[in-house]
Backbone:
């Protein structure tokens, strides 16, 4: 028991010391580094840290904690960051359900939250807040863009599929919103499902001419492998969440030919992106995913605002963030009235790379200047 | 687990009578005092975070006190107590949601309005968790051993999947509680006040379990665990005894869940997941199975490990696993066995 | 009609996948009376070893052999260090210790191999599909999984009923003290059986991993399903595991497909898909609860 007490005292002392340093900017990153979906968090963190290192600023301190993909732990970590470490800015959350647990309370307590990934509809709409910025996308963006693209390409009878949870139903709703036509069938799978034989049989039995699916992480890997094995001959479309560089390497040849929408591609031709992709490969020895790009952009957004104001001056700092005065690796980037991006969404195709491994190749722009539909519900 | 009958039939020093004379009493009072005084000190030094951390420990401990009644005293190894923890949480969340929206929770046949009063929520959480446990227990207690472990898990999984995919209350996204629910004359938004509410809840749960185990009912429950044939020969059917204990256990865990949702300002299906059931079991074992204060010691240790290791390394679960393994293998009687010595007669 | 038959085959196929996993679990419980939550970890170990070895050697078969061997070796090691201390402990301790093992294995694997999923595909010869009698096209690899599942079932039946080891296993199931008295080295027998169970999990991980995502935590969803299977079938019974697996596979598959279709008679397609799949997700747990309510020891209780 004596040990417990001394541990407690130790914690109190470190806090007291930390509070003594002034003017430094503290950023608390809560992200998913263990359990399911951890490669997303690792990439967000690595991209973010790359930008911080490159800035050469030694007055910015980034504290990183693992949320283990658990909302209650994320919530507790956010309290730890705000109440103990007194961070100025929070960031890092990967999954929408964790963002919903943390963000509303955090921003109301006067902390800035900059999202590097999750963009649930509520935070873009009726629960938007002046201290909340999303540097990645609103969840519907990529799905809607693919709907528009497929319509434009002349597909008339798509089957659409997603897991039965809020992000899944949102994805299909977002798709239908911009597809603006009837779909042959809507299939909801189960969270964490690993076998898709039944769904594949159902898709084959329908008279669909194309398939759009949203199955993030391991679910997408399982599905794509089984899809190829089943020999169904139908073009496949999705959002980048099922086709990041790490996932398609795990899927292998089965991914080749699939089209996906993304807000960024590593072969996007602009100076900031060249510097980022090269730097990331050098630092970590792998090709960055869109999550790494989002982490990198999030850090650069924050750094650009820090050039102009310290977060203690809330109004000035908020105004500086709104200007989004940085070179985004995705090209043009600006914020809408609800602090969510207005941006181009690209189409990529999975092709066989020079090393024989599948990789994404930029095809073109699916939708220019896409903006979420929820901004009309946002009163700020 | 096989303890002589005499131990539990004799009056046990529980909470109200915890004496200053023996080591166990000292440890028990010490643990409670630590849990009470540390956040008090932190609060007056201006470190609100530690107050909330202590509230978290307290509530996890309280949930485990409930589970301990089933596992430790009743010998019913429930792998599904997350169901009650989560249901309690959802009662708080759903009620607050409707109170906020001014819509009824149930519109028909009679309109039940939402409420943001903690008293109403607690009552509802206790009653609903009790009813759920009555149904689940009535079916599950027909089985024993591994089957009981697995059927309780199955029921919890059913509720988990339901909550995950039912969109009305947020599905997997969960349900935020914007304003902490209220109590008359108390500012529940204040971290210290809320901690004291949680602490009172924990002390009452401990007192209740201690009281139960000293009663004739407690003696019968112990007998049902050790030798139910003998209990049956004494003219008492073990099944209803176990069922009642199971229901009370779920009620305590459910109340802790309702408070936990208020602490986080948030409830989600994670509170219902099998990992949560596992964690509650871990806490019971860490502390020492069937020890009144075991869950308290287990919860303090578990939350501290989670917080400290999580800050040190992203592979903290690996070390958590190692510690758990060592405790199960070598510290048979948990932290309480180590701090306070084994139970007498053991 | 063809669709119904195809879905029945899919259910059967899912059932054999589950059986591969459940057989080892139920064997270990039957002989040693041990609940092993870490069984899913051996599944993951098997898949990882197969993926890594087949990536370096370029041969799926070599990878498969390695996967089984590594899973067996890890299983034996875990038995020697940890598991053998648990045989005389209550189920509660077993659940906890093996829960801790899950954490150690998952995070240890992530530490060693990173958090990215690995590449593992069926060999080229087994990819693609064939036309079955009746004009139904079906993936070859899934047929192979069914075949392997049947082979394992037959193999285990022969092993247990015809060999000396099987005799000892049966003796161990019915009377643990007795076989010790008869001069059988129980410690060695237990290590062997545990390694066999782990090898079966490794085989399942390697075979099924080729159709799924090889990543940390891949064993957890299938572990829970495997437990449902053996509890329905009667813990410790290989026959029960087989029937339980097929029952769960078929019910789950048909539920997933036909419940949304059923609800379409009452509501809009979107809603029907949502509600149907929500109920489908609960279906096997409902099945398990109903079966246990009427047969508290499962369908084919091996022993009390």
Residues:
């Amino acid at each position: 028991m004596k040990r417990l007490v001394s541990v407690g005292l130790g914690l109190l002392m470190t806090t007291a010391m930390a509070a003594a340093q002034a003017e430094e900017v503290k950023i608390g990153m809560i992200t998913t580094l263990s359990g399911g979906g951890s490669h997303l968090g690792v990439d967000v963190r690595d991209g973010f840290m790359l930008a911080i290192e490159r800035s050469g600023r030694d007055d910015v301190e980034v504290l990183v904690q693992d949320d283990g993909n658990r909302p209650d732990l994320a919530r507790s970590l956010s309290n730890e960051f705000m109440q103990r470490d007194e961070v100025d800015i929070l960031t890092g959350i990967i999954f929408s359900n964790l963002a919903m647990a943390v963000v509303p309370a955090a921003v109301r307590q006067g902390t800035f939250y900059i999202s590097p990934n999750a963009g649930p509809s509520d935070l873009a709409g009726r629960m938007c807040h002046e201290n909340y910025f999303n540097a990645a996308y609103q969840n519907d963006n990529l799905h809607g863009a693919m709907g528009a693209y497929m319509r434009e390409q002349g597909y008339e009878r798509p089957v659409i599929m997603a897991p039965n949870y809020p992000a899944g139903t949102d994805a299909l709703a977002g798709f239908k919103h911009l597809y603006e036509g009837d779909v042959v069938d809507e299939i909801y799978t189960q969270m964490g499902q690993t076998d898709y034989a039944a769904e594949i049989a159902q898709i084959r039995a329908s008279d669909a001419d194309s398939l759009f699916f949203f199955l993030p992480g391991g679910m997408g890997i399982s599905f794509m492998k089984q899809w190829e094995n089943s020999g169904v001959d139908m073009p496949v479309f999705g959002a980048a969440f099922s086709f990041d560089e790490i996932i398609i390497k795990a899927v292998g040849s089965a991914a080749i030919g699939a089209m996906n929408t993304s807000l960024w591609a590593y072969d996007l031709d602009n100076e900031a992106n060249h510097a980022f992709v090269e730097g990331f490969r050098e630092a970590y020895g792998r090709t960055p995913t869109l999550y790494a790009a989002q982490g990198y952009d999030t850090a650069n957004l924050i750094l650009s605002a820090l050039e102009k104001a310290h977060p203690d001056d809330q109004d000035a700092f908020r105004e500086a963030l709104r200007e989004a005065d940085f070179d985004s690796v995705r090209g043009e980037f600006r914020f809408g009235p609800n602090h969510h991006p207005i941006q181009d969404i690209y189409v990529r195709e999975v092709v066989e790379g020079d090393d024989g491994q599948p990789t994404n190749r930029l095809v073109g722009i699916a939708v220019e200047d896409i903006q979420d539909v929820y901004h009309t519900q946002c009163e700020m | 687990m096989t303890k002589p009958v005499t131990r539990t039939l004799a009056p046990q020093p529980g909470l109200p009578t915890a004496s200053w004379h023996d080591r166990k009493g000292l440890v028990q009072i010490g643990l409670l005092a630590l849990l009470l005084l540390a956040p008090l000190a932190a609060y007056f030094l201006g470190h609100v975070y530690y107050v909330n951390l202590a509230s978290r420990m307290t509530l996890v401990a309280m949930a485990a006190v409930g589970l301990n009644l089933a596992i430790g005293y009743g010998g019913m190894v429930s792998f599904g107590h997350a169901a009650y923890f989560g249901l309690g949480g959802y009662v708080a969340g759903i009620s607050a949601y409707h109170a906020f929206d001014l819509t009824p929770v149930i519109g028909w046949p009679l309109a039940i309005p939402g409420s943001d009063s903690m008293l109403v929520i607690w009552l509802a959480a206790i009653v609903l968790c009790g009813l759920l446990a009555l149904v689940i227990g009535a079916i599950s207690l027909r089985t024993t051993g591994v089957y009981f472990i697995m059927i309780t898990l199955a029921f919890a999984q059913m509720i988990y999947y339901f909550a995950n995919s039912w969109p009305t209350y947020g599905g997997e996204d969960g349900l935020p509680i914007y304003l902490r629910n209220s109590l008359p004359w108390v500012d529940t938004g204040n971290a210290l006040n809320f901690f004291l509410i949680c602490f009172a809840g924990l002390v009452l749960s401990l007192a209740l379990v201690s009281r139960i185990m000293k009663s004739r009912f407690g003696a019968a429950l112990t007998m049902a665990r050790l030798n139910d044939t003998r209990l049956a020969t004494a003219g008492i059917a073990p099944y209803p005894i176990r069922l009642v204990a199971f229901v009370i256990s779920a009620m305590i865990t459910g109340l802790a869940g309702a408070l936990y949702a208020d602490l986080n300002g948030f409830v989600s299906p994670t509170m219902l997941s099998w990992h949560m059931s596992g964690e509650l079991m871990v806490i019971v074992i860490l502390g020492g199975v069937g020890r009144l204060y075991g869950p308290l010691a287990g919860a303090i240790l578990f939350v501290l490990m989670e917080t400290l290791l999580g800050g040190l390394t992203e592979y903290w679960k690996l070390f958590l696993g190692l510690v758990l393994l060592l405790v199960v293998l070598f510290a048979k009687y948990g932290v309480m066995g180590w701090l306070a010595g084994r139970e007498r007669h053991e | 009609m063809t669709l119904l038959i195809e879905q029945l085959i899919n259910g059967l196929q899912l059932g054999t996948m589950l059986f591969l996993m459940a057989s080892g679990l139920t064997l270990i419980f039957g002989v040693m009376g041990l609940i092993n939550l870490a069984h899913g970890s051996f599944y993951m170990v098997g898949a990882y070893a197969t993926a890594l070895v087949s990536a370096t050697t370029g041969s799926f078969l070599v990878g498969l052999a390695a996967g089984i061997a590594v899973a067996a070796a890890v299983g034996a090691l875990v038995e020697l260090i940890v598991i053998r201390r648990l045989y005389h402990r209550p189920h509660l301790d077993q659940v906890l210790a093996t829960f801790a093992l899950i954490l150690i294995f998952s995070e240890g694997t992530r530490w060693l191999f990173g958090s990215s999923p690995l590449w593992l595909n069926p060999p080229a010869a087994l990819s693609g599909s064939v036309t079955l009698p009746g004009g139904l096209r079906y993936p070859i690899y899934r047929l192979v999984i069914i075949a392997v599942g049947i082979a394992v079932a037959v193999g285990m039946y022969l092993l247990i009923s015809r060999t000396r080891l099987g005799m000892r296993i049966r003796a161990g199931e019915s009377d643990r003290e007795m076989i010790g008295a008869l001069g059988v080295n129980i410690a060695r027998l237990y290590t062997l059986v545990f390694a066999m169970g782990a090898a079966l999990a490794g085989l399942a991980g390697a075979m099924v991993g080729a159709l799924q995502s090889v990543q940390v935590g891949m064993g957890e969803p299938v572990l829970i399903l495997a437990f449902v299977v053996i509890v329905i079938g009667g813990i410790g019974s290989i026959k029960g595991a087989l029937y339980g697996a097929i029952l769960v596979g078929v019910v789950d598959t048909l539920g997933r497909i036909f419940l949304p279709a059923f609800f379409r008679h009452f509501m809009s397609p979107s809603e029907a898909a949502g509600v149907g799949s929500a109920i489908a997700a609960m279906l096997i747990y409902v099945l398990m609860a109903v079966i246990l309510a009427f047969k508290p020891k499962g369908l084919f209780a091996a022993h009390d």
